[in-house]
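Subject: complex prediction, re-run

Hi both,

The earlier run crashed halfway through, so I resubmitted it with identical inputs.
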Amino acid sequence: MQSIDRPSINPRSRVNLLDHPLHVMLVPVPIVCFLATLVTDIVYWQTAAMQWANISAWLLVIGLLFAVLAATAGLIDFFSEPLIRNLRAAWIHGLGNAAVIVLSIFNALIHTRDAYTSVVPSGLILSALVVAILLVTGWNGWTMVYRHGVGVRHKESA
Amino acid sequence: MKSIGLAAGATGVLLAIAGCGPAPIDPQRQMGANPYLPPIHEYLLPPMHVAKVVGWNGATPSAVSGLKVQAFATGLANPRSLYVLPNGDVLVVETGGPPGPVSRPKEIVMNWVEKTAHSRTKPGQRILLFRDTNGDGLPEQKTVLLDHLHSPFGVVLVGNDLYVADTDAVLHFPYSTGQTQITAPGVKLCDLPGGPIDHHWTKSLTASPDGTKLYAGVGSNSNITENGIQAEVGRAAIWEIDRATGAHREFATGLRNPNGLQFEPQTHTLWAVINERDELGPDLVPDYLTSVQDGAFYGWPYSYYGQHIDPRVKPQRPDLVAKAMAPDYALSSHVAPLGLVFYSGTNLPAHYRGAFVGEHGSWDRTVLNGYKIVYVPFTNGRPSGPAEDVVTGFLIDGDKARGRPVGLAVDGGGALLIADDTGNSVWRVSATSGT
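This time it finished cleanly. Structure:
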């Protein structure tokens, strides 16, 4: 359905480097960090070996730093291009990832606690929730690019 | 714009929640044998509230009526502990902790906070000797007794043997009365748990009344096992070290950070002040003063104040918790007692024949606690009443620190000496009527 409405001009990404949209180049870092946090949290929960919880704490901070950069690029793209703002997928993607950042800030604070309760149960639950949201926001992000061509340069203008 | 508003709103909520926590109770409720223990409150963001260091600028601490405070020494480099030799010479240990590794992002923030709470002066790694030559109680001579030590803290003299507890070893030096400088190299009597983490690094030291044994306080390597239980081998304990052979055993365990090791003069039992765990709320867990029983286990890390389980420790050890002893006397939460001395002199008014405790002061409580010297009355070798503030004035305007008291000692004239690391001074407290 949506492909029928696809405009003849692809929505542009304002924040780009030589026509390479920055947002999609930044997002792999937080996605992998937050996914890995769930893994190391689970391993800590099972082993109570502190090194795993320490790794989670670093992953959350690094993930958050890059998430803020990615969000900044994404927000500028979103507000500078009406064609993006018209996409339902863009709203789901943006609001979902805002929730990911807020929950991950809480999660990083939980992970500053000492020893077991820095992970179990609150940290572990937040890590799992974030990954669940990322599945939805990731899917919608791919919809924006592969269905609606957000940030994709036209073949004829290449 | 909606998402920006949402993010801003969420951040506001987050900050509000982070600042939240139970209001601190009156510390008086946590003094003595049966302190009130509130429910555990684990923070999202602990209230890191340390006093801004402003220095003394010529002022002195204030003492209760009947006592006066004089500057014994100023311009020092982080003086943390004191020891008075039999001839009245006063040893002042200038010291600072070794740098620890950063294993979590949190520690970057914590290190920064800790730095703001301490003097900017680079700590010395030496022991100074002060001598009063004209009997006015204040020193006229100052020499460097020992230099190039490794985070020293405890000092004790037994006969002609001087022992210094560096953070990683007890060193032995031959010493004769009146000597003002030691040039002989120290000989290691016994290793102590040191780096690379060395979270609680101050090793308090005392000797048994008969002089055959030394006792060393070895603090834990973490707040609550967050560096792994394997980092805690031999720690959170008081070691008994045989003076003849250097062999050691753990005399008592489960003491998170024991300092101020002292034998009570009437009963000859060992006492210490203990810094309990952080981040369970503004009023958990009370720091305490306790007699130390041979072979006893005092809870850390598995439980606090007897058998109250700490949920942060996994795996738990119910077998150890079952025998965890409650300590004798609570000093209220986060006061950070680092100095203890039993007073049996004659200079101070007869009211003071118990224990003085030096409280370095809190960092994780919205209303600061500690930052003073308290007196705990003793009768027949046991605490016998509420603690009284004796020397205060380390804080001004509620949250600025002129100094922070650490180690205590009683000098040859019977006055109380206070090491003030943040104020880089040693204070002398004596009766208003005499010297």
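Chain B touches chain A through 31 residues (CB under 8 Å).

- K.
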